[in-house]
């Protein structure tokens, strides 16, 4: 049974005339009559009394009219709600980022900018548990509109976005800084580069995270070889920060995430500036994404970054 058959029947019940009902439905009368006949065959009952003038509904037709009106009304309401959902989704920008960047750069830079524009971001909080490559795949598979992430030449998996199909904005500069809890004198408990006989307990990142390859790349290029013994590995900088604050070891943490803690004096820098690692915070998007809200967001943010 087709929905248009129900609409035909409702039009016929209202006009009580095949020709006028056909005109109302914008079809020829033979086509209209055939569809009414198909409806009756589907229901296995006569719905129209064709022996009266004007036409009248049979008792079965009267019952069927109530259901037809209910079904078409519900379908119309459902279509309208679905369209509202579609428009709402189109008005949003699907956004993914790491837990660390959500707590720092997003709240500092992206959120105030969106508030100023009156734009709503649809933030996928599930992304806080993703591996590094998952973010790249999400953008490439069009599961998100924009991706905020760290960038460094040593992050191999992000090179897939060097393709001409993608573009990026440098939102901010960041620095990974080595941190340690302080002792009673306010000095760091652990200081780079450490000693062979007593390596420093190291709280690092998993290999498939954004930041572990960056740290590994930087340490390999230092004149003094750091003496580190891995105590634990984590995906999130906030987890490393918590363990560093408790005095378990040394860890490299984004500076934006550590500023308040450093000011309190319970955590200190665990090395000179040569142990600091510069990063970029980038926002990526696909050039194929022609969502007008994404385009507006991107162009406005581009202008702000230039300023």
Automatic annotation (TrEMBL):
Pfam families xrefs: HTH_1 (PF00126), LysR_substrate (PF03466)
GO molecular function list: DNA-binding transcription factor activity; transcription cis-regulatory region binding
Xref: InterPro entries: LysR_HTH_N (IPR000847), LysR_subst-bd (IPR005119), WH-like_DNA-bd_sf (IPR036388), WH_DNA-bd_sf (IPR036390)
Lineage top rank: taxon: Bacteria
Alphabetized PROSITE patterns for the sequence: HTH_LYSR
Keywords, alphabetical: DNA-binding, Transcription, Transcription regulation
Similarity remark: Belongs to the LysR transcriptional regulatory family.
Annotated protein name in UniProt: LysR family transcriptional regulator
Organism: Marinomonas algarum
């Amino acid at each position: 049974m087709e929905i248009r058959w129900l609409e035909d029947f409702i039009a016929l019940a209202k006009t009580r005339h095949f020709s006028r009902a056909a005109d109302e439905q914008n079809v020829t009368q033979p086509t209209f009559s055939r569809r009414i006949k198909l409806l009756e065959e589907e229901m296995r009952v006569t719905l129209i009394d064709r022996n009266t003038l004007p036409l009248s509904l049979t008792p079965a037709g009267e019952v069927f009219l109530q259901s037809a009106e209910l079904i078409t009304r519900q379908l119309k309401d459902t279509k309208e709600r679905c369209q509202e959902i579609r428009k709402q989704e189109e008005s949003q920008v699907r956004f993914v980022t790491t837990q660390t960047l959500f707590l720092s750069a997003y709240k500092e830079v992206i959120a105030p900018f969106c508030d100023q524009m009156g734009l709503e971001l649809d933030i996928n909080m599930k992304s806080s548990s993703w591996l590094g490559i998952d973010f790249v795949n999400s953008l490439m598979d069009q599961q998100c509109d924009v991706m905020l992430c760290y960038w460094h030449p040593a992050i191999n998996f992000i090179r897939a976005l060097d393709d001409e199909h993608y573009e990026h904005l440098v939102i901010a500069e960041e620095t990974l800084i080595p941190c340690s809890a302080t002792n009673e004198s306010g000095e760091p408990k652990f200081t780079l580069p450490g000693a062979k006989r007593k390596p420093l307990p190291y709280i690092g990142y998993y290999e498939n995270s954004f930041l572990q390859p960056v740290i590994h790349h930087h340490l390999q290029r230092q004149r003094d070889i750091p003496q580190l013994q891995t105590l634990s590995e984590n995906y999130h900088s906030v987890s490393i920060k918590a363990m560093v604050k408790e005095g378990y070891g040394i860890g490299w943490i984004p500076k934006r995430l550590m500023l308040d803690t450093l000011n309190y004096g319970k955590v200190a820098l665990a090395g000179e500036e040569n142990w600091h690692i510069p990063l970029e915070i980038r926002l990526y998007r696909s050039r194929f994404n022609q969502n007008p809200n994404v385009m507006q967001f991107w162009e406005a943010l581009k202008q702000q970054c230039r300023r």
